[in-house]
Amino acid sequence: MKKFSAGLQELSILETEKIRVTRYSEFLLLYLENLEFSHQRICDFGCGTGVLGIYAAKRGAHSVTGFDIDPDAVDLSKENIALNDCSNFQPHLIDDSVIDEKYDFIISNPASLPTVKASGKEFFSGGIYGIEMIQDLFDFSVTKLKKDGRIFFLQTSLSSINKAANYAHNKGFNYKIIGVFQTEIRDHYQEFWHRVEHNQRTGDAHFVEINGVHSEIVYLVEAKY
Asked: Helices 71-83 and 51-58: crossing angle, nearest 10°?
């Protein structure tokens, strides 16, 4: 179990080897402190552990709906919802959902690493450019975001920022980077490092190297019509 503070909220989150709270999610939680959730309808897209939706629920959201493609993630979210006493948060499998509602905010920590599912790291996989789940997020938001609603999500610089931004613009969204943080690249990234280097050569990825240590830049993105 992971325990941490998000603003004034004390959260207790169960994790598994496959599904856990990442450094990315913790960065997004810091920004979400600045949002007003009271009486808002929130969607946690790719809910995973449920940590983002739980935070919104505890901040007074009218309702939170979570979606994930992985049944294990939905089950883990339900455990964490019960653990944190958030009855206004309901997670669902996205493929089975017939929920017809629109949201004020859609929040997400999508998989955005340039790797494929065959690598065995499905929960990191964003396809060869790292943007497949981000594209899914925008496809979903076209019909599920309220007028004047906003999307907040994270994207690593190891993925294609340009391709993601262009996809968003083609869907009618304004893609705007509103925050950044730098974090050291972990050893397990090496299995797809050749893809990162290839994408960098073509202008579709970048990283920072200082004294032989590689770091990625993680971007907080806001998107709206």
From this structure: 30
User: Is the torsion defined by CA of 54, 111, 68, 70 positive or negative?
Assistant: negative
For residue 77, give the nearest of 28, 31, 25, 127 by alpha carbon. Answer: 25
pLDDT tens, residue by residue, 131-172: 999 999 999 999 999 999 999 999 988 888 999 999 999 999
Render 129-144 in DSSP notation, one character per residue. Answer: TT-HHHHHHHHHHHHH
d(CA 54, CA 135): 24
**For the whole model, what pTM was predicted?**
0.90
Give dist(CA 125, CA 113) in Å, integer.
Answer: 6
Return d(Cα 51, Cα 154) in angstroms, integer.
14
> Among candidates 175, 177, 191, which has minimal Cα distance to 124?
191
DSSP for 6-72 reads ETTEEEEE---SSS---HHHHHHHHHHTTS--TT-EEEEET-TTSHHHHHHHHTT-SEEEEEES-HH
| CA 25-180-154 angle, 5° bins | 40
Strands (E), 97-225: 103-108, 145-156, 174-184, 208-210, 213-224
Backbone angles phi, psi at 48, to 5 degrees: 60, -120
